[in-house]
């Protein structure tokens, strides 16, 4: 287009934030033009939803831009979508690149290719793969394979490559550049550019394998190179088979062999082009004449034979024999081997079978009539006498029959060509079966070995031999179909017990008890009373065996069934699935439905809260009531901002008559910062409940606790509960709610030990983050609220994540905002990165080098634990430098890239009329930001760990009412318990190790009651520890999703590997 553009003009027109977002859209190929003319263009920007942009030139180098996205009237700058289109136009003007057009035909074809790429089974490539909706050019690759003679006389295979018809001069450097996505000068006339070229999948697979070969060389400090020719990469024999399969699939491959270049690589299945001709002189012996050896090249290490443009792959033994034969002929200088008269028979019997695998064998007509070349018929005879299993073998070729265990010569006028390989295989299987040998047969006198033979080795042998078994043997093998089943139901007489009944179709009832005992003893089989051996190694029996191993100790007769209390019974069911073995009867299905689907068993919602509670909150209330009815504990793990507090209040209000009748109040345990928030919520939603915050002096708190019988709810902080636990453990409570239950995620802390001492009829935990770092945290919470669900921590550590997820599914209720609040506005997350300033970068590099040096000394199992605090302190220093070096460097006069970036975002936010929460872990950083806001005359609120609980509630109310537009908050102190829906922008100035903490901070604004779209901006220093922290956060998200929403990989606490990765040591 004929408009005057540069980056500075686009930044001024759109603002820094929109410019950066637009640049991301542009670089991600999200801009697609539908019209592109000198004075006018139209384009679509494919963001979360598509927005249409028009640019109209004014004929003087200026323009007018319009976008279909919704914008605030107070925003005077152009949006990020216009920025993306302007950057695409600028790129066309500067570099001559064609704008990405939405054109019929070609455009639709690229869409189809993109769709195919999405659903291909191959994972995405790392070396310049084709992108969806690709507008780069394919870099046509040609790979040339050839034998290379080395100085030591050996021969290896080598590989050359050409890209876009230009030979690669240095293949190792080229592969390194491709791996690192760097440009690479292939030749003086062609340069590979990752931004402009891609490799087709088949070519890319070959390149990946060549890179792996170089990596393996470096890892093992081995591998040979050709000093004189950098264009050739030698292929180690260990990589050849894998590479060969990739080469046969690549579109352009050549084979250099014998001075010729052959297009493509063929791996034929037929015999080698060799002939072996036996010539016999009457009564004198003869000779073996070999033809074709001079045409082939044998590469024994590769198990390969090259012939013209073909590569034959042989078995290791066959390739060795061929190489030895060629060497022997070469040493003798002839193509024939003399055979003495007395060697003829032996030669024909022993050599001919092996030669047939290498080429075509020709025998004189007279000899053919003397040869027996029929296939081997092997027979195995089985019998059982006097508790012994007896076996004998018989091999037959035509009418020649013999026992392979008897060493005797054949007196015959014929020559027998035996299948020695098959004979050897059969004998090896018999030897593996632990048989004892006699002169002519085998025997077993051990029942377990007999079972192993009949059920493991015999099926192998049946593919090679004919089996003749007596009735005694056939009766030893149990042949009927067995369908073991266990039914589960809730006992009628005792509804808090489960009953398990065993059924074994095909097994007499009087055998069931013995069979179950064998399963408990982990035996592989069970011997029925008629002597048959029943295999217990099926998947169904494995499930029953696992079930029996987990049931509590009992003295009941399993044959009659098994009665188990409800809680340990459910623990069992959490490890099992309904299917071929386990069947759930109607009573158990109904019970599961009640717990799994809140509302199936209706409890009356307190009348005053009926119009207040949303549908999903009513379901949460029903879930709490159902669990309480069965005496179970549970974790209400709803997403932050969905009203867990209100659901707990509804439950307590429904229990109010019982609370007052028994004079056993409910107890709320929460962080100090939330105590008055809880009281405020009780006064708002249930003023009839008498609640009190347990605060004040020791004497005042003791007095309040002594009068607890006259109250409905006590609210106490975790710190004060620890101090006063000796008084609280004497007081029975109707129900206890542990808010922000991650407070006792570490089972060895004093808090965890304290909360276990509370006596309560029902126990519930409220937390949006039941797992932050490791599965041990989930165990710790359940160990307090529902200790019967899991056994000790050691046993818990052996459970797989699928079992844990299934077992907790009934007792952990989690709903996400996206699931239940369809009216909730959009939340958009942005990652804004900034390059460290020069002085800042020097300081960072110096501290990083020192920390790496110190860390290397401590990274072993013995010293890591002792020095972890020191290492973490060093990592904190690096994070502070990323924020602002002045946080700990006295006299630092420079600035900080992230700080400058923040000030620019603050400026743009004020122009846009946005209301902003700024979180940082470092209160000194917040002080610095606050001083700058005050200098500019910008009003703000401030909250950290020192802010009293009552003041927190007051500050939130004032902010939500619109008093100031900025709120500076300490990440850990303000990440929970605050309702700040008056904000529409959340800035996370520095990253935290755990994503759950950041999510909690963002959800102070993005929660029920929010009416505006919320944007969350994470600031990150590029090329620093913060990038590594962001990757670590992704790993930890997987752990949370895997157990609460199954499927992922554990991250755990900060490990030695994490530290190594973060510091690149």
From TrEMBL:
It comes from Bacillus infantis. PROSITE patterns: HELICASE_ATP_BIND_1, HELICASE_CTER, ZF_SWIM. This is Helicase SNF. It comes from the Bacteria. Transmembrane segments: none annotated. SMART domains: DEXDc (SM00487), HELICc (SM00490). Keywords: ATP-binding, Helicase, Hydrolase, Metal-binding, Nucleotide-binding, Zinc, Zinc-finger. The keyword Nucleotide-binding applies.
């Amino acid at each position: 287009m004929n408009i005057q553009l540069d980056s500075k003009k686009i930044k001024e027109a759109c603002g820094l934030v929109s410019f950066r977002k637009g640049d991301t859209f542009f670089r991600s190929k999200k801009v697609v033009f539908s019209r592109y003319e000198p004075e006018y263009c139209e384009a679509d920007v494919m963001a979360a939803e598509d927005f249409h942009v028009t640019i109209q030139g004014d004929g003087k180098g200026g323009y007018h831009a319009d976008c279909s996205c919704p914008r605030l009237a107070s925003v005077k700058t152009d949006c990020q979508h216009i920025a993306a289109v302007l950057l695409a136009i600028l790129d066309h003007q500067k570099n001559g690149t064609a704008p990405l057009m939405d054109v019929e035909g070609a455009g639709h074809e690229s869409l189809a290719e993109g769709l195919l790429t999405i659903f291909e089974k191959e994972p995405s490539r790392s070396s310049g793969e084709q992108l969806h909706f690709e507008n780069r050019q394919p870099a046509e690759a040609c790979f040339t394979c050839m034998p290379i003679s080395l100085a030591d006389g050996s021969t290896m295979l080598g590989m050359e490559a050409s890209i876009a018809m230009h030979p690669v001069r240095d293949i190792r450097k080229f592969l390194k550049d491709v791996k690192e996505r760097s440009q690479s000068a292939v030749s003086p006339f062609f340069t590979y550019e990752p931004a402009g070229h891609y490799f087709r999948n088949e070519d890319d697979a070959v390149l990946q394998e060549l890179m792996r070969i170089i990596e393996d060389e470096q890892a093992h400090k081995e591998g040979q190179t050709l000093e004189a020719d950098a264009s050739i990469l030698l292929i180690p024999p260990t990589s050849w088979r894998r590479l060969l399969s990739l080469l046969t699939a690549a579109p352009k491959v050549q084979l250099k062999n014998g001075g010729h270049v052959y297009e493509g690589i063929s791996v034929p299945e037929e015999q080698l082009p060799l002939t072996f001709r036996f010539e016999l002189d009457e009564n004198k012996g003869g000779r073996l004449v070999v033809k074709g050896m001079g045409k082939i090249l044998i590469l024994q290490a590769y198990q390969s034979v090259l012939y013209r443009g073909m590569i034959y792959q042989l078995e290791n033994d066959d390739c060795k024999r061929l190489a030895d034969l060629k060497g022997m002929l070469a040493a003798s200088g002839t193509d024939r081997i003399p055979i003495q008269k007395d060697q003829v028979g032996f030669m024909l019997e022993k050599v001919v079978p092996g030669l047939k695998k290498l080429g075509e064998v020709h025998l004189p007509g007279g000899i053919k009539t003397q040869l027996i070349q029929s296939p081997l018929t092997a027979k195995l005879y089985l019998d059982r006498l006097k508790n012994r299993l007896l076996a004998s073998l018989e091999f037959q070729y035509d009418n020649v029959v013999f026992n392979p265990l008897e060493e005797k010569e054949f007196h015959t006028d014929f020559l027998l060509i035996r299948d020695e390989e098959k004979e050897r295989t059969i004998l090896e299987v018999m030897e593996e079966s632990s048989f004892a040998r006699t002169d002519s047969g085998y025997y077993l006198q051990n029942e377990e070995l007999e079972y192993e033979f009949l059920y493991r080795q015999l099926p192998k042998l049946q593919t090679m031999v004919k089996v003749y078994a007596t009735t005694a043997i056939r009766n030893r093998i149990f042949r009927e179909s067995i369908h073991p089943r266990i039914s589960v139901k809730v006992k009628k007489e005792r509804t808090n017990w489960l009953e398990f009944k065993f059924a074994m179709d095909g097994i007499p009832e009087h055998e069931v008890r013995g069979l179950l005992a064998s399963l408990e003893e982990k035996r592989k089989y069970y011997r029925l009373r008629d002597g048959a051996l029943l295999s217990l190694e099926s998947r169904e029996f494995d499930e029953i065996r696992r079930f029996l191993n987990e049931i509590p100790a009992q003295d009941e007769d399993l044959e009659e069934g098994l009665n188990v209390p409800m809680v340990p019974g459910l623990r069992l069911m959490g490890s099992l699935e309904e299917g071929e073995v386990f069947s759930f009867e109607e009573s158990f299905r109904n019970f599961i439905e009640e717990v799994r689907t809140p509302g199936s068993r209706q409890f009356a919602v307190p009348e005053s809260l009926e119009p207040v509670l949303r549908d999903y909150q009513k379901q949460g209330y029903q879930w709490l009531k159902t669990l309480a009815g069965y005496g179970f504990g549970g974790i209400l793990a709803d997403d932050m901002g969905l009203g867990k507090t209100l659901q707990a209040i509804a439950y307590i209000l429904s229990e109010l008559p019982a609370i007052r009748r028994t004079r056993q109040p409910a107890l709320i345990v929460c962080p100090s910062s939330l105590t008055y928030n809880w009281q405020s919520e009780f006064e708002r939603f249930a003023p009839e409940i008498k609640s009190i915050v347990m605060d004040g002096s020791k004497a005042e708190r003791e007095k309040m606790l002594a009068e607890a019988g006259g109250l409905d709810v006590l609210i106490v902080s975790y710190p004060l509960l620890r101090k006063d636990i000796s008084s609280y453990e004497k007081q029975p409570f109707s129900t206890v709610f542990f808010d922000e239950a991650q407070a006792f995620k570490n089972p060895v802390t004093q808090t965890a030990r304290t909360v276990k001492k509370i006596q309560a009829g029902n126990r519930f935990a409220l937390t949006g983050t039941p797992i932050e770092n490791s599965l041990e945290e989930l165990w710790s919470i359940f160990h307090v609220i529902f200790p019967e669900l899991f056994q000790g921590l050691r046993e818990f550590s052996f459970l797989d994540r699928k079992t844990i997820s299934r077992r907790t599914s009934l007792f952990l209720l989690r709903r996400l905002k996206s699931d239940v609040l369809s009216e909730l506005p959009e939340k958009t997350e942005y990652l804004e990165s900034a390059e460290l300033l020069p002085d800042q970068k020097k300081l960072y590099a110096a501290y990083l080098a020192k920390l790496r040096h110190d860390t290397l000394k401590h990274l072993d199992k013995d010293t890591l634990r002792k020095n972890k605090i020191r290492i973490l302190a060093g990592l904190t220093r690096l994070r502070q430098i990323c924020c602002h070096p002045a946080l700990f460097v006295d006299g630092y006069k420079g600035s900080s890239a992230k700080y400058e970036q923040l000030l620019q975002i603050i400026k743009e936010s004020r122009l846009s009329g946005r209301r902003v929460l700024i979180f940082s872990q470092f209160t000194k950083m917040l002080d610095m930001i606050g001083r700058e806001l005050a200098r500019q005359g910008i009003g703000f609120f401030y909250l950290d760990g020192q802010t009293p609980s009552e003041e927190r509630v007051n500050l939130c109310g004032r902010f939500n009412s619109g008093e100031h537009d900025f709120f500076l908050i300490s990440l850990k102190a303000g990440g929970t318990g605050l309702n700040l829906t008056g904000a529409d922008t959340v800035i996370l100035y520095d990253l935290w190790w755990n994503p759950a903490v950041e999510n909690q901070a963002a959800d102070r604004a993005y929660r029920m009651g929010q009416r505006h779209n919320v944007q969350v901006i994470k600031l990150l220093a590029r090329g620093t520890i913060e990038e590594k922290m962001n990757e670590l956060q992704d790993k930890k998200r997987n752990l949370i999703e895997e157990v609460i929403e199954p499927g992922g990989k554990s991250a755990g606490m900060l490990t030695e590997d994490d530290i190594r990765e973060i510091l690149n040591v």
